[in-house]
Amino acid sequence: MSARVVIPELLDHLPPDDPDALRSRQDLRRINFLMGNERWICRTMHRHSNQTHRGIIEIGAGDGRLCNRLARLFPNAPVTAFDLAPRPGNLDLRVIWHQGNIFETSAPNTGGVLVANLFLHHFEENELRALGRWMAHFDVLVFNEPNRSQMPHLLGNLMHPWINGVTRHDMHVSIDAGFSAGETGRLLDLRQDRWHVRETSTWRGSRRVVACRC
To answer: Contact at 8 Å (CB) between 110 and 181?
Structure first.
């Protein structure tokens, strides 16, 4: 595939209560389910449960569904979420919600597990390097992002009749801004002397990265 192309996604610029935004979020929940993204994240978190007691942090938490699920799965772990959107009304009371630009927010320095689901692809290289510095204190990093290849575009085309215009646009924009093999760790500057990085991809279009501190 060609180089990453990062352009604005329509959903990011719609008010939270806009009808097209509400429909698109429903589409995204179905897409996440079909791709198995949240199931993979939860399975991965269980394999690193020893680190969760120091905290679970989700960046780009969106509607809060994933951090709600993690709060239920790990009832003894403090859970913190970061997003530009306001705190969702149905969020578990244990979840601490930080609204605002993540680059203007101090990162927790307590360690623990950092999670990002379909979030990193929104950023250019200089922003990803800054995010890499932001997450330097964590013990485990768990990322699920679009795999930048032709197959996800083809699979996305098959879904067009069942998703709205915002989702149709943003799906292909996300794939073009996604990552190929080795890019995530390189762009975040996850150096080999500090991180052990495992990376996989799926035929359904996910690129998955788990980084553990050496």
So the answer is: no
Give the sheet arrangement for strand 56-59, strand by strand.
Answer: 96-99, 79-83, 56-59, 113-117, 140-146, 206-213, 195-201
What pTM was estimated for this model as a whole?
A: 0.94
Q: Give the residues of the chain that fall short of pLDDT 70.
A: 1
d(CA 172, CA 78): 35
Cβ-based neighbours of 87, under 8 Å, separated by 6 or more: 64, 97, 99
Compute and round to an integer the Cα radius of gyration of the chain.
16
How many whole angstroms separate alpha carbon 147 and alpha carbon 88?
28
Rounded Cα distance between 148 and 152, Å, is: 8
Q: What are the tokens at 197?
A: 């990085």
HSE-CB for 101 with a 13 A CA cutoff:
5
Give residue-wise pLDDT tens across range 28-52. 999 999 999 999 999 999 999 999 9
Amino acid making up residue 106: S
Residue 172 neighbours by CB distance under 10 Å: 16
Backbone angle region of 62, left / alpha / beta, with phi > 0 → left and psi within -120 to 50 → alpha? left
Any idea what the Cα angle at residue 153 is, between residues 34 and 67, rounded to 5°? 40
Of residues 70, 63, 67, 76, the one with CA closest to residue 45? 70
Cβ proximity of 86 and 115 under 8 Å: no
Distance (Å, whole) CA 63 – CA 166: 17
